[in-house]
Specification:
- The structure is a single chain.
- The chain has 230 residues and is mainly α.
- It has a domain of 156 residues: Orthogonal Bundle (ABC transporter involved in vitamin B12 uptake, BtuC), CATH 1.10.3470.
- Helix 8 runs parallel beside helix 10.
- The longest helix has 25 residues.
- It is globular, with a radius of gyration of 19 Å.
- 20% of the residues are buried.
- The mean pLDDT is 85.
């Protein structure tokens, strides 16, 4: 593939992270137009709009391409097949930076669960903390997608699943989510390789088939008075 000077083999994850950061700031900009105080609902709605628009652009590119669509579809569904230590080396610096930023923000995230106003009264710079968390998320997501394609539901389901065990302190929740998310991905990859052997299913299909029902169960527990905390 194309490699930029200086960053060399890190060109793909670097460009992926850069695109993720640009999209994050575009979402923040338009969310502020919707609601100046940057509420959670404004962020979610703006994120859905951008997700739909970018998804449409990807579909347009797929429709216009004259090449074999199988590699494109395979990447969109996600795969860690043939991803050796070289890919780990590409991802590791970005993972270290993003994970460190999140872990350092554990205390602020704990305070912010009680509401932004209370967090401000307790001395938390809410605006800065939001930007740090969003930037860290963009770095982690962009670099992961660069090496494995789009694998959904891991980051969505695992933290909520861990909260089922009354683990809400982000200083514990974040590292446990990382470890359990990696374990879930390994188990999903094992299933994808063996369920219709010798063929291999894209791992994104497995994570979605497992993750969607589990997330639905978690939502039911939450809104029927379960033990999950915001």
């Amino acid at each position: 593939g194309i490699q930029l000077p200086v960053i060399g083999s890190f060109t793909l994850p670097f460009l992926s992270v850069a695109a993720a950061v640009v999209v994050i700031f575009l979402v923040l900009f338009f969310a502020r137009l919707v609601h100046p105080s940057l509420t959670l609902s404004a962020l979610i709605l703006t994120g859905i709009i951008f997700s739909s628009f970018l998804g449409a652009l990807i579909s347009l590119m797929i429709a216009l391409t004259g090449d074999d669509l199988k590699p494109i579809v395979h990447w969109l569904l996600g795969s860690v097949s043939m991803r050796g230590w070289g890919y780990v080396a590409l991802f590791l610096p970005f993972f270290a930076a993003g994970a460190a930023a999140l872990l350092i923000s554990g205390r602020e995230l704990n305070v912010m669960t009680y509401g932004e106003e209370k967090a401000r009264l307790l001395g938390v710079n809410v605006k800065r903390s939001k930007y740090v968390v969003l930037l860290a998320g963009a770095i982690l997501t962009g670099s992961a997608v660069a090496v494995s394609g789009t694998i959904g539901f891991v980051g969505l389901v695992i933290p909520h699943f861990i909260r089922l065990f009354s683990i809400t302190d982000h200083r514990h929740l974040l590292p446990l989510s990382m470890l359990n998310g990696a374990s879930f991905l390994v188990l999903s990859d094992l299933l994808s390789r063996t369920i219709i052997e010798p063929s291999e299913l894209p791992i994104g299909i497995i994570t979605a088939l497992i993750g969607a029902p589990v997330f639905g169960f978690i939502l039911i527990r939450r809104y029927r008075g379960g033990r999950i905390h915001d």
